[in-house]
């Protein structure tokens, strides 16, 4: 969950899937220092990245609660691919958006989701739709 439109759509799907499966929902947000943060000479405090992640997490957990689902959040510093592959080791399903906050917007599927599809230890659902699924029953 990175706060992007695609990650919000993925969260909607994950909530529906968790309800259908009577499964636990864990929302993972990762962060690392960008290659270029600000202008040369700027010092960007580590806390500012973590604070953004905490806000994103709080909103995501609240979205799940509003949908009647209890979710836990995890904020992990590290590469999104590495952190999500580790999370997939104990997951029954990994739900991600097709595009996140990275560049290369012309790609059909982002580099993170592409790596997850090929290397995750569990099934991966890559959300590209603009609509969330409707719960059955």
Structure description:
With 137 residues, the chain is α/β, with parallel strands linked by helices. The chain contains four helices and four strands. The protein has helices at residues 5-21, 46-66, 80-88, 111-119; strands spanning 25-31, 71-77, 94-97, 124-127. Strands 1-2 form a two-stranded parallel ribbon. A two-stranded parallel sheet has the order 3-4. β3, α4 and β4 (124-127) form a beta-alpha-beta unit. α3 (80-88) runs parallel beside α4. The protein is globular, with a radius of gyration of 15 Å. 27% of the residues are buried.
Proportion of residues in helical segments: 40-55%
Tell me the number of strands.
4
Globally, the shape reads globular
Catalogue the unreliable spans.
103-108
Q: What structural category arises from helix and sheet content? A: alpha/beta
Secondary-structure element order, N to C = HEHEHEHE
- The average pLDDT value, as a whole number, equals 83
Strand arrangement within the widest β-sheet reads 1-2
Alpha-carbon distance between the two ends: 28 Å
Radius of gyration: 15 Å
What is the tally of helical segments?
4
Supply the key terms:
137 residues; alpha/beta; two-stranded parallel sheet; 4 helices
């Amino acid at each position: 969950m990175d706060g992007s439109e695609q990650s919000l759509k993925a969260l909607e799907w994950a909530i529906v899937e968790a309800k259908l499966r009577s499964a636990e929902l864990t929302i993972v947000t990762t962060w690392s220092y960008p290659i270029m943060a600000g202008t040369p000479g700027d010092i960007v405090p580590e806390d500012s990245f973590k604070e953004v992640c905490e806000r994103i997490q709080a909103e995501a957990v609240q979205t799940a609660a509003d949908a009647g689902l209890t979710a836990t959040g995890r904020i992990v510093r590290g590469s999104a691919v590495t952190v999500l592959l580790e999370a997939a080791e104990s997951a029954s399903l990994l739900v991600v958006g097709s595009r996140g906050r990275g560049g290369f917007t012309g790609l059909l599927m982002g580099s993170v989701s592409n790596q997850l599809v090929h290397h995750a230890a569990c099934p991966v659902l890559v959300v590209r739709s603009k609509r969330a699924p409707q719960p059955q029953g």
